[in-house]
Amino acid sequence: MPRASTVYLCSACGGETLKWQGSCPACGAWNVLEQASAPRGGARSRSLAVEAAPLPLEAAGGEIQRLGSGIGELDRVLGGGIVPGSVTLLGGDPGIGKSTLLLQVAAHAAAGAPVLYATGEESGAQVALRARRLALAAGALEVLPETHLEGILARAAERSAALLVIDSIQTVESGALETAPGAVSQLKECAAQLVRFAKRTGTAVFLIGHVTKDGAIAGPRVLEHLVDTVLYFESETASRYRIVRATKNRFGAVNELGFFAMTEGGLREVRNPSAIFLARAPEPAAGSIVTVTRDGGRPLLIELQALVDRMRFGAPRRIAQGLDANRLAMLLAVLNRHGGVSLQEHDVFVNAVGGVRIDETAWDLPVVIALASSLAERVVPGTLVAFGEIGLTGEVRPVAYGEERLQEARKQGFASALVPRENAPRKPIEGLNVVPVARVDEALAAAFTGSAHSAPPARAPARS
Length: 464
Ligand code: TYD
Ligand code: MG
Description:
Layout: E1 6-10, E2 16-17, E3 33-37, H1 57-60, H2 72-78, E4 87-92, H3 98-109, E5 115-119, H4 124-133, E6 141-144, H5 149-159, E7 163-167, H6 184-201, E8 204-210, E9 229-234, E10 241-249, E11 257-263, E12 266-269, E13 288-293, E14 300-310, E15 318-321, H7 325-338, E16 346-352, H8 364-376, E17 384-386, E18 389-390, E19 396-397, H9 402-411, E20 416-420, E21 433-437, H10 440-448
Parallel strand pairs: 4-8, 4-9, 5-6, 5-7, 7-8, 15-16, 17-20, 20-21
Antiparallel strand pairs: 1-2, 1-3, 9-10, 10-11, 11-12, 13-14, 14-16, 18-19
Helix pairs in contact: 8-10
Thymidine-5'-diphosphate is lined by residues 92, 94-100, 130, 134, 262, 264-266.
């Protein structure tokens, strides 16, 4: 008996089921199953290599020659350049700059090898116009306004393309399926075919994927496990800075960040991003403090802001932008219990300035100080940085890369640092007054009285 050729795919989680049901058995969402005829045998069972034979591991991987993308920050998030035969997914909101970035990369790579830019989003003329506006040297770059996957693959094979860009994966469709482009079954089938093509030919493939407004899974998320590398664009609306974060990378470190600025001439890398999120007013205000995060492979100075406001009615609000709201709730409890600062009758807003998302615990201490600062309307000195994790019993715990963070703060012209006791450097750092603290109440006292208010530095902290 041949296997059933019909499967149902969940458009939310991508789960497969053989029988139609009202809800997806994998994720439980309702009305999300769509029919897909799965091609069995044939294409599916072909192996990745041309002729698969077992290889000794030693022989299987020689030196890989990575392709430079022409943009240092992108090479950095990729782990040192583009790996031939790799498949990279670049996700992000519409209009954030995905096409711009990859057109720049494609034009750079085309100087040395054939490159194909398949576009289903824009016409060939539109892409050409953009390339001209960006003053990109065309080289061996060819634009292919095609949405049929088989057609794209045939062209890429014919040209022996070293790099193939698919803009976007939501617009391509494979003849093997009858569903419309963008449907989960199409996304998965096309991506799977592209992965096989990349591995077989050594062509590096970039897939552009739009993320829907609510960050919904339908779309790029269902492809994450198929591809080698997943990059996401992050940005705050209205900010010209863009961050590219690697959330998965088979060829490099994850959570590496690349920094870009959108300019008239396309995306430009920001090589020294350390202080770009420090666009502070010249006079420090209550509720504002600078922290040094190490999320993303290098130290980064970021301003954290807190606002506490007497609650008007109903339940108090706790809103965190760029930070984890559950952690904020925990910090409020610790602050109440161990810091003597009660915010139970206040609305609380916390913001990491510049649209960065901070996913580490080192911001605990600065957030707590910013909250206390806002409540008391007492200013934290503008020359002070703080970092440290806070435990449930009110203790201030050490974080990784303490010394590196302190060095960066000093380099940016900060005069003092409030840090966990275990993070205090063994040798004093010249020009930086390090104030070690062990408990929350101690930290609050130090932030607002004497010890953190050292003499102003010879050079004012960098502001951009
Ligand atoms: P785009 O790359 O088309 O975004 P995506 O492919 O992610 O949807 O970027 C579009 C935005 O970028 C658009 O709003 C205009 C802006 N932009 C510039 O500011 N400068 C430029 O040189 C280019 C090409 C675009
Ligand atoms: Mg686009």
